[in-house]
Design a protein that fits this description.
There is one protein chain. Helix 8 links the parallel strand 9 and strand 10. Strands 4, 5, 6, 9, 10 and 11 form a 6-stranded parallel β-sheet that branches. A 3-stranded parallel β-sheet has the order 3-8-7, with no helix packed on it. Helix 3 runs parallel beside helix 9 and helix 8 runs parallel beside helix 9. It contains 10 helices and 11 strands. With 298 residues, it is of the alpha/beta class.
Length: 298
């Protein structure tokens, strides 16, 4: 029996609610998926080699959870000039295929104030976006994707799980997993997102060997996390802030959300967490920087 690998933390509540609403590091050219769109020549970001991980044992999709647990010497934030402990804030832009009517009635699955706060604070970040979110908010997806401060990665098309029994989420059939991933990249292309990253985050954080095998031909690196913020459906910003600060370590990947209806206090949390972590010697980077650090990039 294939053992399900998952984060048994606050994601249980998140998954249920969203239903309703040893590898060797190596640097390779970005390969989001064989049929994923190539970056537009008119894009503002110049395509550069993107760090990924080499395939796992048996050629399985590699899984990245955190970067090096050491000070990030020579890995400067944005301009490459400062040292410090690296940490990546990541934000899941969740939306399911059947939530269109709720969006049409006024429910907000985006959070432009959060993105504005990250820009104001000059915090690089990685947004794991569903294709359905990009379809609902193409202007926002394009704005985020064209901003060098951010990078967009794949979070499936409609946040359906890639395993059975994943906190109550609907599931994608094994034979449809690759098509689902590619459909998200197609949605990014239609929204005008240039150069989406070859990183994939499993909905609910749930995956098994079959899922890793099915996605292996796409060339993506699966990105998990080691710090659960607990911002999903939270109303106590102070509690979420403490959870992030207590869990942060050098190289950490923090999972948060950029969906107002599902994570209403995230902007407040970011405004509290960022200055405190900076005072502790942390520097904020994108997931690609952490993967590059793991690969020994200077």
């Amino acid at each position: 029996m294939i053992t399900l690998v998952r984060r048994a933390t606050a994601l249980c509540a998140l998954g249920a609610a969203l239903t309703a609403c040893g590898t060797t590091a190596a640097e390779v050219a970005p390969r989001p998926a064989p049929s994923a769109p190539a970056p537009s020549s008119s894009a503002s970001r110049t395509p550069t080699p993107t760090p990924t991980l080499a395939p796992g044992p048996g050629g399985l999709t590699p899984v990245f959870e955190h970067g090096p647990r050491t000070d990030g010497t020579n890995h400067g934030e944005q301009d490459g000039t400062r040292d410090g402990k690296l940490i990546a804030l990541t934000f899941d832009a969740d939306m399911t295929a059947d939530q269109g009517p709720r969006a049409a009635s006024g429910e907000r699955f985006d959070n432009p104030q959060l993105i504005a706060a990250l820009r104001e604070l000059k915090v690089p970040a990685t947004v794991f976006m569903t294709g359905r979110w990009a379809e609902e908010y193409p202007d926002e997806a394009r704005s985020i994707g064209r901003d060098r401060q951010f990078e967009i990665a794949n979070h499936s098309y409609s946040h359906y799980a890639y395993t059975d029994d994943c906190y109550g989420l609907p599931t994608v059939a094994e034979d449809d997993m690759r098509a689902d991933l590619e459909r998200a990249y197609t949605a990014f292309e239609k929204a005008g997102v240039p150069n989406p990253m070859p990183y994939f985050r499993f909905p609910g954080g749930c995956y098994d060997k079959a899922a890793l095998k099915e996605l292996s031909a796409t060339g993506v690196t699966a990105v998990q996390w080691d710090v659960v913020s607990g911002d999903a459906f939270a109303t106590d910003a102070d509690a979420v802030t403490r959870q992030v600060l207590d869990g942060a370590r050098p190289g950490s990947v923090v999972v948060m959300h950029c969906t107002r209806s599902a994570a209403p206090v995230t902007e407040e949390v970011v405004r509290a967490v960022v200055p405190e972590l900076r005072s502790r010697g942390y520097r904020f980077v994108k997931v690609s920087d952490l993967v590059g650090a793991a690969n020994g990039r200077a």
